[in-house]
Structures are given as structure tokens and as C-alpha cells.
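User: Can you help me understand a structure? I only have the sequence.
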Amino acid sequence: MSTRQPPTALLRRAVAHLAPVLPLLTDLGDRFAAAGHDLALVGGPVRDALLGRTATDLDFTTSARPDETEAVLRDWGTATWDMGREFGTIGARGDGTVVEVTTYRADAYDGVTRKPVVAFGDSLDDDLVRRDFTVNAMALRLPDLTFVDPHGGLRDLDAEVLRTPSPPEVSFGDDPLRMMRAARFVAQLGFVPAPEVYAAMRDMAPSIAIVSAERVRDELVKLVLAPHPRAGLELLCASGLATHVLPELPALQLEVDEHHRHKDVYEHSMTVLEQAIDLEGPPGGPPDSVPGPDLVLRLAALLHDVGKPATRRFEAGGGVSFHHHEVVGAKLAAKRLRALRFDKETTKAVARLVELHLRFHGYGEGQWTDSAVRRYITDAGDLLPRLHRLTRADCTTRNVRKARRLAATYDDLENRIERLLEEEELKAVRPELDGNEIAAALGIRPGPVLGRAYKHLLAVRLDEGPIGPDAARERLLRWWAEQPESGVAGSGS
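Assistant: Let's start by predicting it. Here is the structure, written out as C-alpha cells:
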């Protein structure tokens, strides 16, 4: 194994970023050495330290088998857990710090099943060669902090290139998810895949089908939340991976008609994503600012036009229409997110934003009634801050005058929304009679009829604003007289 020290400046920067955890690294290294085992800091933490970035997690690898690791960590920490024992990972907590230590691994897929076949390795060499990319195949032996780089990771780190420690066909055959990780690192780090890596991704893209939807989802989430998701998404499409994991995205690359009478929907969607990111609030900001990175907003921006391919129509006059693409798109987005095993809340929120993203365009020059604005607010609900940003991001016109007009019109709508929210407390809008009062006024019991009556009064509240309990009761009785359950409707009296 070739081992070389990195340039002095890089080493100093790495040590500086690891300074807060150096006592921990030394302590754990000493403990494993005393027990007769090797221990190394490996992967992302080493890469990030060399890049001058602060790592959020510390990954350790060891020659110790899980039972031996657990014995060392039990003496070090206050609690241990072994949920990852099957994969050689033991976790522990000590002095407020959580660590996970994994036995050298040499596992791979069998090419058929969705789970890797776990096999433990016998050396750090075995472990590093099975890592996804050379920039993640560097290590610091502990406790002496010897830098280990058998596959030229430091060289590739400096060149901002993604290469695999073993031939990419072997690496991606061992775990096809590594192709998704390549796209994720492009989005996170700004690196580019080496030509042979890109070629293997194109050739082996169909093999991603053996990976579980949950693992694909997790990589996609990391990619979308990265600083530059567009670059990673473009790699997914160019390599053919998106055809298997997110087919709605490459489907947006519609053939542009010879007269270029409609936008390139794929490029438009990528631009909307970037503009939505620019409108996110700072991390840790108040909810109304949509602090970034925001998964729901970013997914909605990416998927807002996925209904266009299915609804595209060439009109007689040479134009192109996409009628009701927002409704179709909402269904397609929800279907895809469910297939990727996203949680129900995220799926529902993204689909709702896709469904609502065109609503603003009915506002025209501001001629909506207060009733229409109220419905816009209540239909969006808690998603209103995200809908504001998605709608603004959806303006990608190069016509400066048109862009300014749209922005001014949406400014007007937001001002009206703020006024109505302040005057009428619409975030908690309710009918002016509660369920008990409605039941008493109509002489009915709880059930479907009471639910319809409640919805009617809510519609009255949205259409007319606050009118007072007496007027609300009068509207309710007028409605009730027209219902078949009242015994009055159709009586001719």
C-alpha cells in the first residue's frame, strides 16, 4: 500500500478543522490499540478536513469485529447500541459525543437482490478499495494521525474529479447506488466524474433497479438539498439514471417545435429550482421565511411542470397548450414520491404546491375579489410561504418589462394577503357558528349533514368575510330550506 503525506498546508488545514475532536480521536485510537486492534478515521471526515470543511459526522473503521468493538466502546462511553451489527457497525455515546465504528468491510451486491451481501475485510486496504470514490478512500490512522491514500484521493481532490478506487464497472457492480452518489457529490462538492466513471454510469444505469427505493430516495434527498442540485440532476439525466429513478424529469426534455413557440420545459424547471433556492430564507430563520435548504419547496420547483408532457397539445394556429397540467402534474408528482417511499406529509405538500402553482395567473391585473384572495390563502394553508416563493420562481421570462409587471402584480397580491390576514385572522378562519351552534339552529345531530352545513358556512365566511353570528345563522337557515333533509325543500309551501 502506498502512503504519502499530503502537502503541509493541506495537513495543517485538516488538523485545524479536526482540532476540536483530536482528543477524542487520540483517546479512541489508544483504546483500540491497547485492545490489539487498528482504528482509522476514514471517508467523508478526512475529505472534508482536507477541503477545510467541518465534518458533521465522524466515521471510523477498525480491524475489530463487532463484538470486540462493542467491548472497547462499552469501556469508553455511557451507552452503546448495535442496530447496525449485521453490517459491522457499533454506536456509542460518551461525554455528549456520538461515534459509530464499523469493521473493515468487503461486501457487494450479488447482482440480483436489493441488499448487499455483507463480508468483513481483514485490512484497511480491503476497506478503502471498496469505498465509492477515491476522495472518500483516504484515512487517518489513529492515534498517530498517519495519512493513508492508496488510490490517489488527494490528487483527485485537488483536481475536483470523481474516480473510483477499483474499475468503475466493478465498483458500481458492487453497489449500483454509488452512481447516485456520484451525482450527489457533483451537487454537494462541485466535482465532475472522470470520463471512465461517466461512461460506466451510462452503461450500468439500469442496474440501479436492484437498489431499494428507500436508499435511492435518501441519495436523491441529499442531492436536492445540496448547494448546487442542478448539476447533480443534470448528471442523473445525462447518464440515464433519471430514466429509472425519476423518469418525469428527463420526460420534460420535450422536442422544441421548429418555430420555438414554447419554452424548453426541462431548462425552465431547472431555472425555477435555482430561483426558488435563491428565495429561501437563511438557515434557522422563522418558518415564514422558508429557511433553506427546504426539501418541499425544492421538490415542488423541480416537479411543478411534470404534467406538461401528458397535456401538450399543438393548436391550430401554431401555438402549444398544456391545459390542466397542474392537476395532472400534482398526481404524477405524488405517484413518483410515493414510489420513492417519501413520507405522506412531504408527498402531500409537494403535490399541493404543484396543483396550486398556476393559481396566481388568474389574478390578472389585480381584479380578484377579497373572496378569491381568501380562498387563495386558505387553499394554500401552511404552504402559503412556499407558494409565494414557487410562484415568483416560476417567472423565467427574459422580457424584463414582463418580469417586472409580474413581480409588481404578485407584490400587490402579497400586500392584499397580509392585509386580510391581519384584519380577519385568516390563518385560523372558521365559520361564525361552531358545530354545536349549527346543530342547535337546525335541530340535527352530528353526522354528514352537519359536515355539509359547516362547509357551507365556511364558504360564506370566505366569500363575504365576517358578517356576524346573526347574519351567519340567517344564511344557514336559508341554505337549510333548500336541503332535502329539511323537509321544506320541494314542498311547494
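Now, to help you interpret it: Residues 435-486 form one domain. The chain has 23 helices and eleven strands. Let me know which part you'd like to focus on.
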